[in-house]
Amino acid sequence: MRRNENFSENVSRRDFFRKLAGGLFVPYVAALTRRQAHPAVILNDVFWVKDIPDSPFYDPSQPNLHIGLDSLLYKMADAGLKFYRSTASHSLAGVLGLIAPDDVVLIKVNAQWKYRGATNSDLVRGLIQRILDHPDGFTGEVVIFENGQGRGSLACDTSAAYGDSSVHANANDEKHSFLYLVNNVFNDPRVSAFLLDPVRGIFIGANDHTTNGYRRYENVSYPCFTTSGGRRVELREGIWLGNGHSQNLKLINVPVLKHHDTGGSEITVSLKHYYGVVSMDDGHSGYRHYAGLGETCGKMMAAVVTPVLNIVDAIWVSHGSLTGYPAATTFRANQLLASQDPVAADYWAAKYILYPIDGNFRHHPDFPGIERWLAASRDTINSLGGLKSLEKGIVVDRVTKSEAEMNVRTSSAGDFLRQARISLSSDGLSFVAAGSAGGKAQERTLAITVSGSMSFAWWTEKDVDWLGLSPASGMGNGKIGVRVDASGLAPGKYTGRITIHCREAANSPLSLPVRLTVVEGRRRISRNSLGKF
Prior knowledge:
six-stranded mixed sheet
């Protein structure tokens, strides 16, 4: 049975009250209080982003940022579920966040198929970039991984069911396969890939920490492998360090929402996608297809390793084929859904995204063929103690397929951008200063207000050496000391400019001019010489 960690196991009493004073624990304290007072109550968050533009990369200065993915992360943060585990001043950071700077982050994709039957690699590109942008500096490793059961290809060139081996990624640019991301887009030792297909038939013992292969656990199996960065991943135990395991292994599950078959699972979403991690060579394939599907999904989630997040890719939904081909069997829905509760995520995605596209009741979660394994997954997870692990940032305890026990938070892509704006306390600043070597530096205060529902990060730039800014960056509303130092400057008039950037603000960057009049050192400067334009 999984251990449900107590809050006190991970945070000291002193740190708890210090962070509580700063508001960092408020959403979690509320959640924990609810559970203690009403242990039978389930209310699990589901985050739903719609209206993602066909061209999702929205910031030319950071071309890997994906507006759909970022909208999802900011929606999560607004609810208290922070992506980064950090005490840094960042909108996506919190002490109980999901991703720590030294984590090994596994991203489970669907690469058994290509075209729109694979996970959208534009989405994966945005996710990797956000991990690398950790405010504390990311020193771990991101690993894109898949077990295609002998038909997988991270190059998106599988010939299974297609009759050709050409590259067709599920991306705006079809050459952007998962390996293309690793080797070309990022080309960073912190980003790697691992295909499990070649080792799915190799089974190793508990004391083998070198061979790439699988271990059996009851009636499931899980991979153990060494990454390109030299980390030994043993999925159920953690990261092997030579004399024990660390727990800085995180898994993000990124299924593509689609039709699967008729008479089997019917659909693929979070649970069925993650079920693909097992090796079908472990002797239990017959049971899993499909009498034991729900139990297998639940056991992988609750007893092997729990994904810290399930992100349902509904950019393209393959409603009429498993393979995502031909194009007529697919529909561009431009939506994303995420939850730490995979049962809730699958129920909601099936009922409110997939089913409305084609009206096929076999795609509805109340269809008996789906309802059976969805209920079995729920019951298996809950019987094993649920999913909650504050050590890994997982706040969902018991899972549900009841809409009454889901808290669905919806937004349109880019809402977090449109809702934030920067404003400054002045349209411009002017100074008069003596230019002698002994001239005294002068300082004024500039107030910054960042409107919106969240405290976004901002940073400053200046274009002249005689200007000083302190602090040069911050979070939310703040004040900057603007300092001029005229020492060494000849008498005359000078103009500089301060630029304030906030990636999430609709009117960023915002700039204001600074005018400096330098006078001879013996001239007296009046207080009225300092001020606004």
